[in-house]
Amino acid sequence: MATVTPESPDTAHAPEEHASGDGHAHPSNWLYVKVAIYLALLTAFEVFTYFETVHGWGDTAIIIMLVIMMLLKFFLVVAFFMHLKFDAPIFWRLFVFGLILAMAVYMVMLTAFRFW
Amino acid sequence: MAAEATTHSAHAEEHHTSTGLSNEKLAMWVFLGSECLLFGGLISTYMFNKGRIGPNDIGPNDVFDIPFTSVSSFVLLMSSLTMVFAVSAIARGDLRGNRIWLATTAALGATFVAGQVYEFTAFYSEGLGFTTNLFGSAFYALTGFHGAHVTLGIVMLMSLFVMSMRGNLTQERAETVEIIGLYWHFVDIVWIVIFTIVYLFPQ
Fold first, then answer.
1. Per mean pLDDT, which of A16-30, A44-58, B161-175 is the most reliable?
2. Partners of residue A26 on adjacent β-strands
3. Hey, are the CB atoms on A21 and B93 less than 8 Å from each other?
4. How many alpha carbons lie under 13 Å from residue B165 in its C-beta half-sphere?
5. ipTM of the complex
6. What is the pLDDT of residues B129-149, one digit of tens each?
7. DSSP letter for each residue of B163-192
8. Global pTM?
9. Are B30 and B99 in contact (CB under 8 A)?
10. Which one of A3, A33, A38, A77 makes the best mutation probe of the B interface by having the most chain B beta carbons within 10 Å?
């Protein structure tokens, strides 16, 4: 999967990753395009769920589907566009720590205010 | 995996810091982790308050224009793609390509902000002001903070563009573009969450 030969601008399709001048692995432009296509498709499906034709599925089912698609989009951007999949694990841990802390604090807050 | 490990270790050797990692990049990740708390607070405040309106008050269903917001969401999502192209271009020493992708990203970001200004104007003309009700306050606070972050991102992207035009942004400073890119992608993932929770969740 990983190669360490620099990628030329006109051969973006072959390698999934390449090394840049800083010795840091970067995915190829083609991999980024593939991720963007997945993101666009997920967004299109999210918007599709909004319209009345699928509201017969029930609000709970819609919310579960939307949350799954939102999380998929979130982690695609974080893992590939933000390079966390290829970077030092400490960056991933720092970000996830903030994310989990935020979710925990506000879940407790919403529960305390009897939101659910 | 072996190649990944090789590149990680090669990367670590580049930085003469106590962690072996770039302090600037580490600081950006700590900052983004803390930003999760800011936006988490705003999103949960919105969730809590959106339904606390009177029967005749203006609410989400009265003002939201989902097709319009979907297009502006798509524009912001695609700006993340152009941002990674900018990072990729400078990493391989393609300075002209880097400038083109930075300018494209800034233009897409500006399009998103323009859409948000239009949306706010339309909502205001329909009677939803910042102090109209709790839904309005929470909505404008959340999306306004996000818009301010996007605007700051555009300023940073244009600063990089000017630096590049002056010859101060070379391949050796690729990490600067990568760090600004991290901020830009974060703004994008926050919008992914806002778009789903604020606009698409059944009201």
1. B161-175
2. A18
3. yes
4. 9
5. 0.88
6. 999 999 999 999 999 999 999
7. HHHTT---GGGHHHHHHHHHHHHHHHHHHH
8. 0.87
9. no
10. A77
